[in-house]
Structures are given as structure tokens and as C-alpha cells.
Design brief:
3 helices; five-stranded antiparallel β-sheet; alpha+beta; two-stranded antiparallel sheet; 161 residues
Length: 161
């Protein structure tokens, strides 16, 4: 079954489609791996700063299986004499989302608008502070998802040779 895009339920119909699938998979896997390494280094090298919470909420995002919920906290902080603003709860660039609104709200329940809290800053990226000094598995999930494309694209590329 094909829609003219070169991809079908049975996989790509051409070598070009298979190679595209492989490249997309490599990009997703690479970015997920890169993001995991970056967040691990940020957690390891971070220093504590005092932050002021400006806004707390939960945003919704359409997902393949319905709606996902992303906890958000916007806060300001000062590092080495410069004031910054961030909205990262976790250090990963790929946002952590939750399947229910209550699960997302529980992540930000401890933060109140106008209150001070501890944030964490990696000295080499002072503008990217985050609130929870721990890694998440979201980048690894993205890398695993990309790996399926790599394996599928590789398989179909070999099949079309």
C-alpha cells in the first residue's frame, strides 16, 4: 500500500526511500544520544543558584496516542552577575512529557509563583538553567525510536541492492 511518497506499510519501495529512512533514523538516534550526554554533563558539572519562580503550569501537546502533558516552570536567576530566564524543569533539550495532566502537575507541585527555589546551572551554558538536577530517559527513548528507523532503513537498503 503506497501513497506515492516512496514509503508503504511494507517499507520503502525504492532504495532512495530506504536510504532516507536510514538517514532520518541516524539523525534521531544521534540527537537523542547527544542530548543524553549533554544532560549528563550538565548534571555532573552544575552549580546551585537561587531562582525566582515567575510562572508554573502544564502545557498540552498532541501526540500519536492522544495528548501529552508537559510541566512548565518559568524562572529567573542570576549567575556571575548576569540575570537569565529559563523554563527547563529538567536538563535535557528533549522535553519530558506525561500521559496524564495529574502526573505533569505533580512534577511542578513544589513550585509556586513568586517563591524562590534552587536551580542548577552548567557553567559552560549559563543561560540554560534547570530545576531538577537529574537526568531523564527521554533522550534515550528518542535514540531508541531512531534506532528502529536505522535498522529498518538498513534492512530495506540491503533488500533493494
Amino acid at each position: 500500500m503506497s501513497d506515492g511518497s516512496g514509503l508503504s506499510i511494507d517499507g520503502p519501495e525504492s532504495l532512495r526511500g530506504a536510504l532516507l529512512m536510514l538517514l532520518v533514523g541516524l539523525a534521531i538516534t544521534g540527537y537523542g544520544g547527544y542530548d543524553y550526554v549533554q544532560q549528563s554533563e550538565a548534571v555532573r558539572d552544575s552549580v546551585e543558584v537561587t531562582a525566582t519562580v515567575e510562572a508554573v503550569g502544564v502545557e498540552t501537546a498532541s501526540a500519536r496516542r492522544g495528548v501529552d502533558y508537559e510541566p512548565t516552570v518559568r524562572f529567573t536567576y542570576e549567575y556571575e552577575g548576569t540575570t537569565y530566564e529559563s523554563s527547563s524543569v529538567f536538563p535535557a533539550a528533549i522535553s519530558q512529557t506525561y500521559g496524564t495532566e495529574s502526573a505533569a502537575r505533580s512534577v511542578v507541585a513544589e513550585y509556586e509563583e513568586g517563591a524562590t527555589t534552587t536551580a542548577y546551572v552548567a557553567p559552560d551554558r549559563p543561560g540554560d538553567a534547570f530545576l531538577q538536577n537529574r537526568t531523564t530517559n527521554t533522550p534515550l527513548i528518542a535514540a531508541g525510536f531512531g534506532l528502529f528507523f536505522v535498522l529498518g532503513g538498513g534492512w530495506f537498503s540491503l533488500k533493494h541492492l
